[in-house]
TrEMBL record:
<dbReference type="Pfam" id="PF02321">
    <property type="entry name" value="OEP"/>
</dbReference>
<keyword id="KW-0175">Coiled coil</keyword>
<keyword id="KW-0812">Transmembrane</keyword>
<feature type="coiled-coil region">
    <location>
        <begin position="265"/>
        <end position="292"/>
    </location>
</feature>
<feature type="coiled-coil region">
    <location>
        <begin position="339"/>
        <end position="393"/>
    </location>
</feature>
<keyword id="KW-1134">Transmembrane beta strand</keyword>
<keyword id="KW-0732">Signal</keyword>
<protein>
    <submittedName>
        <fullName>TolC family protein</fullName>
    </submittedName>
</protein>
<dbReference type="InterPro" id="IPR051906">
    <property type="entry name" value="TolC-like"/>
</dbReference>
<keyword id="KW-0998">Cell outer membrane</keyword>
<feature type="signal peptide">
    <location>
        <begin position="1"/>
        <end position="23"/>
    </location>
</feature>
<dbReference type="InterPro" id="IPR003423">
    <property type="entry name" value="OMP_efflux"/>
</dbReference>
<comment type="similarity">
    <text>Belongs to the outer membrane factor (OMF) (TC 1.B.17) family.</text>
</comment>
<keyword id="KW-0472">Membrane</keyword>
<keyword id="KW-0813">Transport</keyword>
Length: 446
């Protein structure tokens, strides 16, 4: 396994942690490249991401639910009409088994009525319903922010993956150019009988492998490009040119306690958990309100023909209205509501435990992300030192080889080590940047 294969095997798990699987190669005929900074990519994420759009619709839906809950404060109005066919009315003056006399009736009746009811008190259930709808709206808002943050992290992973591929490609092209010059020198030595043919073959084999690696890098770039296009709402064939300058010292002055404090006040999961706990408490209060009297104002008025409500009857149109205060109390709610209230109370206690558990998870995630970020920064510094050492080692081995003091394997190994350290440095810088974004995501500041 050569250095390129080893590198990709080591890097892929870190990239796949933020990247959903599945992408196809881009067509060969693509439009002109679109230069984009990471900030511009994130702006497109907030506008075009389907996941974010779904969360936005949920916010709008919950906002309508608040309006609907407030509408419960308005009086209930209704209007009705009725037509009926009245049957004959026999009067059994001599008992059921004797022929009755027929009482004269009007066989058609018509009624038009209107009514109103205005709630005065029902255990404060209307206000509790409004507060519950507002809480659900706040939860939807925090869920959208969380989705935006996570989608930004995915976009950053794809963007940095493209930037890594471009850096690798540039390093590989430079190495290929240097290897071609070196191969020309080796061929000259072979023609002069200084070295064996096997040295030329080994150098040519290495060069062919390097050129094959370019194909793999182009494919990696195309795959990451399409994934990013899908995420930010661009056509699959649109080529993106990452122009962001890597910054591996972002937030270096912040301490673990600073990040922990930020997470405590800004982490989306904690805010969502807080609102879900509040929602459970409102549901408990709403259930307890079932054991409360209901008081309201009512008014009813109707026109009817004929008048057969009161005796004596009249074959004329008449109007009749009622207005007043109504009160009721459901006695059965004392035993029907008992177990519902206990169930709701247990759900509140369960949600409070889940909230504490969420805080524990966030604290652990902040600690892990912080340590990994520091580790990534340290790896960058070590990689810089390795590049310097590999450069010097390659210079020494190059001089000794062409002075017939070392073997071709030593020279090729030195070349591989130098290119590998350059790859490692670029990968470490990419990983440090991505780990910083992960830390920002966990603390709710991405």
């Amino acid at each position: 396994m050569n250095f390129k294969t080893k590198y990709f095997a080591a890097l892929m798990p870190a990239v796949l942690a933020f990247s959903p699987a599945g992408a196809t190669r881009m067509p060969i005929d693509t439009p002109r490249e679109m230069p984009l900074t990471l900030a511009q990519v994130w702006q497109k994420v907030e506008t075009n991401s389907r996941a974010v759009q779904i969360k936005q619709l949920k916010i709008e839906s919950s906002a309508e639910a608040i309006k609907d809950a407030k509408a419960e404060r308005l009086p209930d109005l209704d209007i009705s009409g009725e037509y009926a066919r009245v049957s004959n009315m026999p009067v059994f003056e001599n008992g059921l088994f004797h022929t009755p006399s027929q009482f004269p009736v009007l066989h058609n009746t018509y009624t038009v009525a209107a009514g109103a009811y205005f709630n005065i008190y029902n255990g404060n259930k209307v206000n509790l319903g409004i507060d519950a709808s507002k809480t659900e709206n706040r939860i939807a808002g925090e869920q959208k922010k969380q989705t935006v943050s996570e989608t930004k992290l995915h976009a950053a992973a794809y963007y940095l993956d493209m930037e890594r591929s471009l850096i690798f490609k540039q390093l590989l092209l430079q190495d290929i150019a240097a290897q071609e010059k070196q191969l020309a020198q080796i061929r000259t030595l072979q023609k002069n009988g200084v070295i064996l043919k096997s040295d030329v073959l080994r150098a040519e084999l290495k060069l062919s492998r390097q050129k094959l690696s370019l194909v793999q890098l182009d494919n990696d770039l195309a795959i990451a490009n399409q994934k990013l296009n899908i995420l930010i709402g661009l056509p699959d064939e649109q080529r993106i040119d990452p122009v962001e300058v890597l910054k591996t010292d972002s937030g270096q002055t912040a301490t673990y306690q600073d990040y922990l404090a930020d997470a405590g006040s800004n982490a989306y999961q904690i805010k969502i958990s807080e609102q879900e706990t509040e929602l459970k408490k409102l549901q408990l209060r709403n259930i307890r309100a079932n054991v409360a009297p209901k008081i309201g104002l009512f008014a009813d008025y109707k026109y009817s023909y004929p008048q057969i409500l009161f005796y004596p009857y009249s074959a004329n149109l008449f109007g009749l209205g009622f207005a007043g205060v109504t009160a009721s109390f459901d006695i059965s709610s004392f035993y029907h509501n008992k177990h519902k209230a206990k169930e709701a109370k247990l759900e509140v206690e369960s949600q409070e435990i889940e909230h504490a558990q969420t805080a524990d998870v966030i604290r652990q995630q902040v600690n892990e992300a912080f340590l990994r970020y520091k580790e990534a920064l340290n790896r960058v510094e070590v990689s810089k030192t390795n590049v310097k050492q590999a450069t010097e080692n390659r210079r020494i081995v190059n001089n000794t080889y062409f002075n017939q003091l070392s073997l071709i394997t030593d020279l090729l190994d030195a070349d591989n080590q130098l290119l590998q350290t350059k790859f490692d440095l670029a990968a470490a810088q990419i990983a440090a940047q991505l780990q910083y974004f992960q830390l920002q995501n966990v603390t709710g500041k991405l």
